[in-house]
Design goal:
3-stranded mixed beta sheet, 11 helices, binds 2-acetamido-2-deoxy-beta-D-glucopyranose, Alpha_CA_prokaryot-like, lyase
């Protein structure tokens, strides 16, 4: 991986991101790398996107992998000339045309890109379709640092125990990962973060169940212990020691199994709509479910994940200034229904 280029990119665009300073970067960091500014005097972000062409990273691609591969959580190694700076200037569609959101014969529903800004007041039709989350859990999972986020992969650990049934189809939980801020919005509000549970049916059809992460109302509130355990289990990854690690449940926390479905309860309300992957190649045809109620996560736990995203030691993974959220895409009159976990 070309860490040097990424390092340059990371610094060259710092000036555009005042918030980065607020997020723990000292003025000394900027001064020490001032030569990066002159390397890209004009359009530093575009230059970075081009230089990133030379970067290899891994992505889970639903568009190219066959259903068996997806079910196994296989990741294809491919060139990834994208990052979380360049999309502000429209670079994603240049490399990955689907990200533009134009339908084509192969992808007639590509106008339905994700994420979206959900208008909570609707009008949304209630659905009678049943969503159920099943399974005992996984004794272990692979925690890994990928191109743009931290992922907890169950399929890679040989576990297909967790399944979601939706509209009569059974989907196996392949992996979950986190975005910060949230990608999906509710009435224009971005939450502090979002967890995506990525599922695959036996024919490869994807289902993503998203849950907002938000700060507790009072500072004394510890936030969700389960998410805390997940972030804690990846601390050595955050520190840049191991990019991938098999974590067993006994190490992970307070249960015999790792089971993110513990975070949901029967009766929890959700929105459902057609969408896409929120990262290149932005493949459409994804069943989306966004839980209405956020899970509360403490500020120190957000800080752990934020440090991970901002970590300069992440060689070859594009720095995102501590954020990895794609902006909302046009609704284009898509139908949103509301339901609840049965
Ligand atoms: C799957 O669940 C069964 C119990 O239903 C358990 O015995 C088994 O260890 C689990 N598999 C993994 C890989 O966690
Ligand atoms: C990152 O790259 C530097 C220099 O190329 C190397 O010393 C360091 O060990 C690398 N860190 C990781 C986590 O790979
Ligand atoms: C990193 O991974 C190696 C190989 O899997 C393992 O031996 C080592 O203990 C891990 N380090 C940490 C800090 O978990
Ligand atoms: C959405 O629907 C309205 C009314 O049916 C229509 O006027 C409008 O053009 C549609 N917008 C898009 C983007 O399809």
């Amino acid at each position: 991986m070309n860490g040097q280029f990424l390092h340059i990119c990371w610094v060259a665009t710092l000036s555009a991101w005042v918030s980065a300073v607020a997020n723990g970067l000292s003025p000394g960091d900027l001064a020490a790398d001032s030569e990066c500014e002159s390397s890209f005097p004009e359009s530093s972000e575009r230059a970075c996107a081009v230089s990133a062409l030379q970067t290899r990273a891994k992505v889970t691609s639903f568009s190219t992998a066959n259903s068996q591969d997806v079910a196994k959580g296989v990741e294809s190694e491919k060139l990834l000339p994208w990052n979380y700076h360049a999309f502000q200037q429209g670079d994603w569609p240049r490399m990955y045309p689907l990200c533009e959101g134009n339908p084509n014969p192969d992808h007639p529903n590509n106008q339905f890109q994700s994420p979206i800004d959900i208008p909570s007041r609707g009008p949304h039709e209630p659905t009678d379709e049943r969503l159920s989350l099943n399974g005992w859990g996984c004794t272990q999972a692979v925690f890994q640092l990928l191109h743009d986020y931290l992922e907890v992969n169950f399929a890679d650990a040989g576990c297909t125990n967790l399944t979601a049934t939706w509209k009569g189809t059974t989907y196996t939980l392949v992996q979950l990962h986190f975005h910060m801020m949230s990608e999906v919005q509710l009435d224009g509000k971005k939450f502090m973060g979002e967890m995506h549970m990525v599922h695959s049916a036996s024919d490869g059809s994807p289902l993503v169940i998203g849950t907002f992460l938000d700060l507790p109302q009072s500072a004394e509130d510890m936030g969700n212990g389960y998410v805390h355990d997940m972030f804690l289990a990846c601390t050595d990854i955050v520190n840049g020691l191991n990019l991938s690690r098999l974590v067993s449940a006994y190490e992970f926390g307070r249960y015999d199994v790792i089971n993110p479905y513990f975070l949901q309860r029967a009766g929890n309300k959700f929105y459902s709509y057609p969408g896409s992957l929120t990262t290149p190649p932005c493949t459409p045809g994804v069943e989306w479910i966004s839980m209405a109620e956020p899970i509360l996560v403490s500020q120190p736990d957000f800080d752990i994940y934020h440090a991970f995203l901002s970590n300069r030691l992440r060689n070859g993974t594009q720095n995102s200034y501590g954020f990895d959220d794609r902006p909302p895409q046009p609704l284009n009159n898509r139908t949103i229904v509301i339901g609840e976990i049965k």
